[in-house]
Amino acid sequence: MITAAQVKELRERTGAGMMDCKKALVETKGDIEKAIEYLREKGLAAAAKKAGRITAEGIVDAYIHGGGRIGVLVEVNCETDFVARTEEFRQLVKDIAMQIAASNPKYITRDEVPEEVVNKEKEILRTQALNEGKPEHIVDKMVEGRLEKFFNEICLLEQPFIKDPDITVEDMIKEHIATIGENISVRRFARYEMGEGLEKR
User: Fold this and answer.
1) DSSP H or E run through 95
2) Beta-carbon contacts of residue 127 (< 8 Å; ≥ 6 apart)
3) Coil, strand, or helix at residue 195?
4) Which GO terms describe its cellular component (predicted)?
5) What is the spatial distance between Cα 15 and Cα 40, in angstroms, rounded to a whole number?
């Protein structure tokens, strides 16, 4: 059984995310030293340590999909212009733009989702669960679970990566942070779809 104290200790020692720490401890059956090794191999410890560093360089890239039906503009930042010019970084930005075109996220992270949007979704999910005849005490748990799924759909970093759905976009970026050796962050994006919001006559 993995305790919260173990997760906390591993987080403090590696700077990796909570879920990554928990997974590492589960994989290594609670052995902290092995879990540190596991995170280092995955590059997650290094990525988290770089997460606080300022990313003032980077590129803006455009991606047009489906014969001009969908267009994406994305800005991805890194620490140095040297990295911004590398083929690996440019490919990463292109992959992120393709992800946005294909999966249509609304936000980059869940922190950006306005509270009223979250509350409205909770209300809808709660009503759905009650309409399914679920008992009141189970409903809240169901709402939490379905809310996670909602975030996974609308937040870019939480979406399954289109080229490898076993990992999230955030995991994929962390892998690049580990290999490139610099912090990388998605700053903003815009996605346009032909005819969006227009009524067909």
Assistant:
1) helix 87-103
2) none
3) coil
4) cytoplasm
5) 11
Summarize pLDDT for 154-167 with one digit per residue, the tens: 999 999 999 999 99
> CB 104: neighbour CB atoms within 10 A?
15
In three-state secondary structure terms, 69 is coil
Q: What is the Cα 154 distance to its own chain's centre?
A: 10
Query: Taking the complete model, does pTM exceed 0.85, yes or no?
Result: no
DSSP three-state, residue 43: coil
Can you read off the two tokens belonging to residue 67? 């014969």
Q: Which two tokens stand for residue 14?
A: 């590696």
Query: For position 80, what pLDDT does the model report?
Result: 87
Task: Report the candidate in 185, 175, 192, 198 with the shortest Cα–Cα distance to residue 69.
Answer: 192
37: exposed, middle or buried (Cβ count in 10 Å: 0-12, 13-18, 19+): middle
Q: How far apart are CA 23 and CA 19, in angstroms?
A: 6
Q: CA nearest 53: which of 76, 28, 78, 35?
A: 78
Q: pLDDT tens digit string along 18-40?
A: 788 888 999 999 999 899 888 87
Paired residues of 73 in beta bridges: 62, 190
Q: Of 44, 2, 43, which is closest to residue 26 (Cα–Cα)?
A: 2
DSSP 111: G
Structure tokens at 35: 């879990």
Q: Which helix (H) or strand (E) holds 190?
A: strand 185-193
Give the count of beta carbons closer than 10 Å to the beta carbon of residue 128: 14
